[in-house]
Amino acid sequence: MTEPRMQENVALSVVGTPRWTPEPDPRGGPGDPATLLTIDKNGGVTAFSGKVEYGQGIRNGFAMEIADELDVPIDSVNIILGDTALVPHDRGTTGSASTRTVGIQLRRAAAIARGALIDLAATRLEVEAGSLATRDGQVMIADGESDAVSYANLLSGHTLSLAIPEVVETKRVEDFHLMGRPARRIDAVSRVTGSTKYAQDVVVPGMLYGKILRPPSYGAKLQQLDTARADRVAGVVSVVRDGDFVGVVAEREDIAEYAIEALRARWEEIQHAASDLNLAAVLKEKAGEFVTLRDEGSLDSAFDSAERAFENSYFVPYVSNAQMEPSASVARWDGDHLTIWCANRGPFTERDGLVEALGVDPEQVRVISMDVGGSFGTKTATVSHEAARLAKSVGAPVRVAYDREEEFAWSTVRPAATFDIKSGVAADGTIVAWDYTAIHAGENAFRGQRGADTPYDVGNVRIKVAAADSPLQAGSYRSLGGATNHFAREVHMDEIARGIGLDPLEFRLANLSHPRLRPALTAAAEAFGWESRASRPGIGYGVAVGYDAGSFTAQCVEVSVENQDVQVKRVVVGFDCGLVVNPDGARNQIEGSIIMGMGTALWEAVEFDGGRVLNGKLSRYHVPRIADTPEIEVVFTGDPETLSSGAGEPGIVPIAAAIANAVRDATGKAIDELPIVPQL
Amino acid sequence: MHLRVNGESHEVAVDAERMLLGVLRHELGLTGTKYGCGEGTCGACTVLIDGNPTQTCYTPVSAAVGREVTTIEGLADGDELHPVQEAFVEHTAFQCAYCTSGFIMSSAALLDRVSGPDDDQIRSALSGHICRCGAYVRILQAVRSAAGKTGGEGGAR
Ligand code: FES
Ligand code: FES
User: Fold this and answer.
1) Which among A198, A323, A619 has the least Cβ separation from residue B132?
2) Does residue A4 register a pLDDT over 50?
3) Fewest 10 Å CB contacts: which of A111, A148, A247, A466?
4) Measured between alpha carbons, how far is A613 from A279 in angstroms, rounded to an integer?
């Protein structure tokens, strides 16, 4: 496996904080200064980041940014990700928003390195630095015929260590030769030949296979355990018991699975009243304190003066991330030092979790995040703790890999949520009052705040959000509360439009002056042909807007509905994420967000009763398949001079509402909750 | 037990009922074939057995004896990618790519069987696969384009 890189070859290194934002970032500091970028004696470039590749093409994005800024061929750039022994501690958040702050900092590091190389060349050639240009890993006189000098040549005999100053001039958009253009992913060949290594694929010498005994429901307590039959299974190395934690370690995975079945356990289950059927009421009952995100104007007098008022409640259930790669982890102890190979998106967060769970020091733990087979926010960290405990107990490296049922039952789900919205409009269709109350499952109120505010123009507004104790283990998901808050708001917008007899697009435009969201909406509507859409039986059209991770988007959809057969035919997206570094990569992410959001709109809900998940198999949990694929068109509306913002998550925020609005258009049936299909 | 995988012979000492997926991944180290569901619903574990796409998570290893197994590792001809792999690269028909081996194997089998398949044939051949990253738009484009290139010549290798 990856071992710490030899540093002897390094001729130039750039040190800086891993993240950078023009303004101080309210979401977290810049991280600890460390080496971000090196150039070795042969001109090879290496960059380091605590980010992880989970399908978003981050390695490719960073390589493009660096190659462009440093003027080197993209295949000379190597990106090291997610290994706590090698990469800077970004102390940052996960998600699209923090990725761009890393990308821009790597560009700044590359720009500094390029400046230093030009200075070296200026001295060598005895010319002004300003007269020099760079291309393809070489410095040359800008308009002369002079011989080019390679970076490797310039660096020979030097060892430079550079710090990133506060002000760095990076390239202007018109000088980009890679960014902003479609490109193949640099990792493409390994992805199509099966050679990319995921956590599921890690093998270390002497590795054994672990399997954990799962309780029948959340919170169940182990009463009795008989290990006699399991102990006798040939190939079982050990049955490990530590309180309620029980696992088998065996020479092979199938033996471990067999031995787990051979354990006789008696559990005492606790009674939970909650199920997917009474979830909305449970959340309301368990809501904690409300956080008021915005309170402006006077709602009372605005409602008094409003021509019409609307009031409704909405609900979204738990959904499962159901990423294709179930969680897996390999743990190896060397004395009291632990190495973990896993699929976590935040290697340092994973390390901190291990430190806390195992009572060791951070220096004793190295986490190596492999390429992740999909995540969308979740990957349970528990699997690493389990592998570490088993490995410690048997004194050999142990792999624990969840099967699909374990993944459904024991990793996290997207928080369910309820919403109450009251709105008032004037006679001309202007929104004058907006009173929004949301309750999101989960201990973390921050999650539910994302996307709760309204982007529409309204002077009298109150936005309140609370978290409620969650019967299931709620966790991260693509855009988290962003997607669910948007469902409630954008469906309510259609209710108002319908109530006052305005076209849903016209009504939105009448209340939307946002300088980035409005152009995204008009662009989507125009490309869709909203004005000229033809009314036909069984066909419906819907529109919704959204904002997330610093980006702005609007989506128009066409659906066909025949009983419970809903086909999303066409989705047209207006999307503003500022500078689009890799348009094809961004499109890929937006398409994926839409497909994923279609699942949450139409079919997906985790069914549970008390502490048991009832539909925890892919055969019982309907996710979109290839036959469900709509035609998707993306129109980018951002200004390339604006720093890039997220493209991986925002695409999901408006889609469920746009589909719900379209289904209502086709059927006349109000859609106040998700998923849609069981209601038809 | 005697297995032929990607043109090579292997002797493996395993139970006849053990699923082929575990044998490929853990005994032969061919980790390009993935586990996704274990119940035949996701397609991540698909390989070709005598050219037929087969879900190895519920195919016992005994069913592969005496047959030719092709996994993703054996699809390219040396450094030359199979036309379907080439098209997946061309169209970036993946995100995390955990599902990709399975999609490629079923697509290659389709193009071998049907020259110039239409969209319905492509969709139906790939209906047993899940791409949770939702790369379907590109997967369709890639298979269409590979079909265009191989069509008429008796399909893929
Ligand atoms: S793992 Fe075999 S079909 Fe899913
Ligand atoms: S690319 Fe991630 S599951 Fe298909």
Assistant:
1) A323
2) no
3) A148
4) 14
- Ligand 2 pocket, residue B23 CB under 6 Å: no
Q: What's the whole-model pTM score?
A: 0.93
The whole-angstrom distance between B43's CA and the closest CA on chain A is 10
- Ligand 2 close to Cβ of residue B21 (< 6 A): no
Candidates A579, A128, A494, A130; CA nearest to A310 is A494
**Cα separation of A469 and A447, whole Å?**
13
Task: Express each pLDDT in A607-632 by its tens digit.
Answer: 999 889 999 999 999 999 999 999 99
Give the mean pLDDT of A195-224: 96
pLDDT tens track for A371-425 = 999 877 666 678 999 999 999 999 999 999 999 999 999 988 999 999 999 999 9
Q: What structural domains and CATH numbers belong to chain A?
A: 10-193 (3.30.365.10), 200-268+327-401 (3.30.365.10), 279-318+413-679 (3.30.365.10)
Task: Tell me the domain boundaries of chain B.
Answer: 2-75, 83-147
With 0-12 / 13-18 / 19 or more C-beta atoms within 10 angstroms meaning exposed / middle / buried, residue B95 is buried
Kindly report the CA angle at A175 between A171 and A176, in degrees rounded to 5?
A: 85
Q: What is the CATH number of domain B83-147?
A: 1.10.150.120
Distance CA A551, CA A100 (A): 12
Q: pLDDT tens digit string along A94-138? A: 555 567 788 899 999 999 999 999 999 999 999 999 999 999 999
Q: How many CB atoms lie within 10 A of CB A593?
A: 28
Cβ-defined contact of A624 to B136 (cutoff 8 Å): yes
**Residue A318: is its pLDDT beyond 70?**
yes
**Is residue B136 scored above 50 in pLDDT?**
yes
Question: Using a 6 Å cutoff on CB, does residue B40 contact ligand 1?
Answer: yes
Yes or no, beta carbons of A325 and B123 under 8 Å apart: no
Map residue A214 onto helix, strand or coil.
coil
DSSP three-state, residue A541: strand
Which residues on B lie below 8 Å from A401 (Cβ)?
35
Assess whether the C-beta atom of B38 lies below 6 angstroms from ligand 1: yes
Q: For strand A413-414 and strand A319-320, is the pairing parallel, antiparallel, or unpaired?
A: antiparallel
Place of tokens 């290697």: A347
> Which CATH code of 3.30.160.270, 3.30.465.10, 2.60.120.280, 3.10.20.30 fits the domain covering B2-75?
3.10.20.30
Return the number of CB contacts < 8 Å for A and B: 172
Kindly tell me if the per-residue pLDDT of A93 is higher than 60: no
Q: Is the pLDDT of residue B150 over 70?
A: no
Name the residue among A191, A404, A596 with its Cβ closest to that of B134: A596
Check B137 against A629: CB less than 8 A apart: yes
- The pairing of beta strand A160-163 with beta strand A10-16: parallel
Alpha-carbon gap: B106 to the closest alpha carbon of chain A (Å): 13
